[in-house]
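Thread amino acids onto this structure.
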């Protein structure tokens, strides 16, 4: 994938979206560049983030298998030709979204890892994880569609596996931080099972009434606490 000015760029940098553009500060500081070039790259970064935002919106509605670049271009207010300056096909859009989500989740949980100690009650740790999962599902439904949706094709299946593995590692790190004696392999297994429980319950929240949704979340927390205790 190229940049708007034809130069080679760091793919993951442009894929992380507007939530973390600080990762791309090297574009203007590592090598001296004319101000016009810096502005052009900033505009390109913003446009790529807008394309990924549009792709998220379309995937949340129709799923990745039905996604087309024409749909994304229309949602982003671009011509297909303009979109192809940044992403040559839907597979590159998928790669960009996976990079964005992986970076976003890694930063989120890393920022909270330092607050986890053996003194933190398991109920508090589980409650925070479930509440964040519910909130992030509402904020980024395409993430869960890619993570747990129908994996049609090797590319989507591989992307789903990468996101699942990254999230499981983050959960395992939280568990080991709270229980330093927990073997690494056991922590990974516990994290995988915890994700499976979350996967089973979160889709049920969409059609549920607020009252029933609250009951489901409470039961999920109870189930996780009993499993992890």
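Threaded sequence (229 positions):
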């Amino acid at each position: 994938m190229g940049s708007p000015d034809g130069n080679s760029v760091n793919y993951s940098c442009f894929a992380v979206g507007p939530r973390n553009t600080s990762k791309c500060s090297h574009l203007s500081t590592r090598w001296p560049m004319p101000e016009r070039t810096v502005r052009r790259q900033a505009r390109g970064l913003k446009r790529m983030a807008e394309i990924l935002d549009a792709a998220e919106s379309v995937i949340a509605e129709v799923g990745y298998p039905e996604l087309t670049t024409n749909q994304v271009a229309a949602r982003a207010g671009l011509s297909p030709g303009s979109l192809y300056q940044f992403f040559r096909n839907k597979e590159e859009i998928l790669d960009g979204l996976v990079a964005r989500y992986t970076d976003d989740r890694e930063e989120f949980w890393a920022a909270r890892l330092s607050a986890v100690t053996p003194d933190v009650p398991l109920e508090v740790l589980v409650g925070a994880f479930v509440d964040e999962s519910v909130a992030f599902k509402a904020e980024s439904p395409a993430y869960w569609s890619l993570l747990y949706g129908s994996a049609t094709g090797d590319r989507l299946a591989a992307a789903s596996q990468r996101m699942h593995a990254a999230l499981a590692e983050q959960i395992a790190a939280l568990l080991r931080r709270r229980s330093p004696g927990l073997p690494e392999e056991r922590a990974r297994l516990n994290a995988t099972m915890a994700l499976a429980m979350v996967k089973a319950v979160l889709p049920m929240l969409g059609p549920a009434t607020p009252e029933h949704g609250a009951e489901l979340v409470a039961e999920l927390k109870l189930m996780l606490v009993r499993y992890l205790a």
